[in-house]
From TrEMBL:
SUPFAM superfamilies tied to this protein: Actin-like ATPase domain, Winged helix' DNA-binding domain
Homology family: Belongs to the ROK (NagC/XylR) family.
Protein's recorded name: ROK family transcriptional regulator
Keywords from the named record: Carbohydrate metabolism, Xylose metabolism
InterPro entries: ATPase_NBD (IPR043129), ROK (IPR000600), WH-like_DNA-bd_sf (IPR036388), WH_DNA-bd_sf (IPR036390)
Domain of life: Bacteria
Organism the protein comes from: Anaerotalea alkaliphila
Primary role: Transcriptional repressor of xylose-utilizing enzymes.
GO biological process, one term: D-xylose metabolic process
Amino acid sequence: MKKRVSNIEVKKINRNRIFRYVNNRERTSKPEVAAALGISMPTVLQNVNELMEQGLVQEVGELESTGGRKAAAIAPVRNAYHALGIDITQNHLGFVLTDLSGTVLKHARVQKPFADDRGYYKDMGEAALEFLEREGGLGKGFLGVGISVPGIVDNTANQIVRSHALGIAGVDCSRFSEFLMLPSVFINDANAAAIAEIYHAETRFNAAYLFLGNSVGGAIIQERKGYLGDETANDRLYLGDNWRGGEFGHMTLVPGGNRCYCGKEGCLDAYCSAKNLSRHTDGKLERFFEEMEKGNKGFEKLWEEYLSHLAVEVNNLRMVFDCRVIIGGYVGSLIEPYLGRLQEKAAALNTFEADGSYIQACRYRVEASALGAALQQVEAFVSTV
C-alpha cells in the first residue's frame, strides 16, 4: 500500500512539474521537457497526453530542426482559465485580469476612497463585476478573486488583523467579498507585489522587497532548495510569527523624527512613502518626476533628500539580510533612471562593499499588488494539476 501511494504521489509531482514547465514557456517540445526536468520520455509523453485531454496543453506545429526530425511543438492553453486581482488602497481600487500565464491581460484603476461601510463594499463588488464583464473574464474557466490590502492579513483566522493605512482592525475578510459573491482569497499588498515579482523567475534568489507605495511595506523572499515549481511562490515568503514579516515601513529611520500615520515618530514610511513626493504635484507621482526632469531645482533637492533616507534603509536591509534589495511600489516603477544615484548613496554607507549593484528596480510595474493577489487563485489551481 505504501509503495502504491508513493507511486501515485510521484506521478502527481511529475505531472505538475511538466505542466509548470510548459506553462512558463511560449512553446517547447516533449524532448526538451524530458531533458530539462530529468524525466523519462515515456513519462513525459503520458503526462502531456493527459494534459492535452484536460485542455491545458496543445500542439502548435513543429519546432525548427536542429539536424534531425522536427519535434512537435507544444504550448500551454493559458486562456482556459482566468482570475481577478483587486488592490485596495486608501483612495483607489486597482483591477487586474490574468490567465494561467500570470501576466497582466487587462487592468484598470478607479478612484474610490476607502470607507469601512456597506456602501463602499457594495460599490467595490459592483465595480469588480463590471470590470470582469467588460473584459470577458467571467465564464466557465473563472478561478476566483484575489484581494490585496495594505495591512496584516491572518489567513488562518480569515481576518485583517490591522491596517493603519485603512484605519481598521480585527475585520473579517468576508466583509470585503460580501458583494462579490465569488471565491476570494486575501493577501497583504507588499507580499502580493513580491509574489508577482518572483512568480516567473527562472532561478531562485534571496531578496528584500521594499514596497514604496502611498504606504511603505515589504516582503522577505527566501531561496528554497529543490526543483523549481515544487513549492508555491507563497512558500518563499517569510511571514514571521505574527504575519508581520517585512513590515519595513515601520522600522525607525530617524528617532524622534517626522510623525508617521501609525502615530509613532521617525518611521521609514514618514520619509519614503510615495506621498512624500506626490503631495507636491497634487497626488500625481509621475508629474513629480516630469517636473524634476524639466529642471525644477526644488524637486531635485527633495529627490536627493528622499534618496538619502532611502539609501539608509536599503543599506540596513543589506546588512541584515545580505541579499539583493528590490525597489517596488509606485516609486519602484519609476526609479530605474535614478537607480545609479541610489546605488552610489547606499554604497557610501556600506561597511563591506563599495558596490550598490545589489539594488534593483522591480520588474512588474503595473498593478503588481493586484496581479500578485490574482496569482493566489492561479497558483491554487496550478498546484492541483
